[in-house]
């Protein structure tokens, strides 16, 4: 049984206990509550007149940060304190601790949990530093199968990677089931890693930060210049090194580096000026000043040598502008060839990073695939280190390592040199054995496969997935029929349609054309829209619709005639229903054909409600595609639903009548007024979401 099949064994987790209401704990609680789970959030006891103040404050701050999908989800959380409400954890199916990074405190907490934990409950720690072996108290061996590290990334609503590891040291039925819960119920992109300090992403990502900081310090390169060189220039986020540290907090960096140094003995050492800022309480945005500071809109930078702030200096690095004009990763080659101090900085940084990655990968990761994806998904790298080495060429990488004196890493690199590269077609190099192994052997193969499938779908619009299932993104009706007919010629096992059509389509576009008096455009819109629905209604293969937008307009109708519909959880979490939802195009035809046999119980609003109640809800688009493909291989219906709609209920004829009626009514003032009102409502809601997003982003920027 492969990983995908094993992962379908579900576990029932309805109630979650979160211990620790700091920024991470409260954000995890908000995430679980937003996905409809019941949550208990506990922290230390406050003053006598407000004993649960700490937990309550944490959840209020989560609300302010925008950690909830909708504010109403806060009602799914019960707050309390560890002294008076510890027994509330006895009814939880999963308990996660997110307290301060202190191994002694965590072990004591787990010992106390033993007395209240329900049988078969899952327990996890959100540590980003300690191993499970360090945290499991003696005498709790019975926890072994259900004791995990679940390393969420902050903020979890935006960063969906979760590193997962267990004490067993390999995948088993418990890990598979819990991983499935994290991905399907909490929207996580799960990577199974080894139980080592910092796991994969933090161990390697923080090391690269430390090297960038120290090299900049040694070479006299300013913080602004370091950021200019370690951001998009080498395929990393715009926040680069120092801006990212200021955002997450210097305290997180300093304490994390210390813990990694103590746990691994590796070269995790920061320059003294970083420690100086930490001792001064200048922790970044959370304290109002860190490496950067803003006063009345003016930016200042901490000068590491003068130990004081000075005005921000826009970097003027020779060759950088030209490099950025080139596509990634081509620009890396250009930057490495710079003969100035900046070129030397980058050559050393990449050499040191590659050397560390090569040396520790067998210890921390099941394979090189997991290393690349952990840094791409967790730290925002455009290309993981092994893919980068393949791109640069192993001869070039060897030269970089030789120039920087990394002899032991060259020995590991030699195993790849013998094969010419780290990755081949559907295979990758096993660093221990020194030979290629098939990609599907990776414990994270399914996760990676469907992330890559989604990326390919977004880029190409149409892709052939596993098991002869084809996937097509429908963002516009233009040429959609042509694409579907091409897919039909391939005789696919099933068709997965990812729907992202404008929610006001086609009525908003018809309204615009009517107000302009553009008869030809009205005819064209009605023609292509009707053709698409008729083409889909006549398909003789299983069809799964994955909604990637709102339940309005044409998206709704396509969903109604699909065999299975999958919709994002965000559609369901809001208790409020739009008063003037754009009606599904073709709904009148379906209602008209259903009425004779079903007594007229349907309305356009009713059809939307039926669709909502019959949808499979997903929280993670990657997993939605995986489930859709799996369903496509299991469905053996060959379009029975659509044959009944067409032949028994006469949908095709009714749709043609509706199109004809629209051609007449589109000029009717009452029709135009009704559609205009519905269109305005859709626009208003879209603007509210955008305003909310902007407010959230600005609050994050101000912190």
List the helices and strands and how they pair.
Elements (H helix, E strand, L loop, with lengths): L2 H4 L8 E5 L3 H12 L3 E6 L9 H13 L11 E5 L12 E4 L5 H11 L8 E4 L6 H4 L11 E6 L8 E6 L6 H14 L2 E4 L8 H19 L3 H7 L12 H7 L1 H15 L7 H8 L12 E4 L2 E6 L4 E4 L8 H5 L5 H7 L4 H24 L3 H11 L6 H8 L1 H10 L3 H11 L5 E2 L2 E3 L6 E3 L6 H16 L1 E3 L4 E6 L5 H10 L4 E6 L7 H10 L2 H19 L5 E5 L5 H9 L2 E5 L1 H4 L13 H12 L5 H11 L1 E3 L2 H14 L5 H9 L2 H15 L3 H34 L1
Parallel strand pairs: 1-2, 1-4, 2-3, 4-5, 5-6, 7-8, 16-17, 17-18, 18-19, 19-20
Antiparallel strand pairs: 6-7, 9-10, 10-11, 12-13, 13-14, 15-16
In brief:
It is built from 30 helices and 20 strands. By secondary structure, the chain is of the alpha/beta class.
Structure description:
The two termini are 48 Å apart. The strands form four sheets. An eight-stranded mixed beta sheet has the order 3-2-1-4-5-6-7-8, with helices on both faces. It is 50% helix and 13% strand. α2 packs across α3 (53-65) and α25 crosses α29 (651-665). The chain contains 30 helices and 20 strands. It has 703 residues and is an alpha/beta fold.
CATH topology of the largest domain: 2-enoyl-CoA Hydratase, Chain A, domain 1
Q: In whole angstroms, how far apart are the ends?
A: 48 Å
Number of strands: 20
Classification by helices and strands: alpha/beta
The named CATH superfamily of the largest domain: 2-enoyl-CoA Hydratase, Chain A, domain 1
User: How would you describe the shape?
Assistant: globular
Strand order of the largest sheet: 3-2-1-4-5-6-7-8
Mean pLDDT across all residues, rounded?
A: 87
Number of domains: 3
Strand content: 5-15%
CATH level-1 class of the largest domain: Alpha Beta
Structural Rg: 28 Å
Give the fraction of residues assigned to helices: 40-55%
DSSP helical segment count: 30
For the record, the CATH architecture of the largest domain stands as Alpha-Beta Complex
Characterize the quaternary organization of these chains: single chain
Low-confidence stretches: 1-8, 690-703
- Main beta-sheet strand count, sense and barrel state: 8 strands, mixed
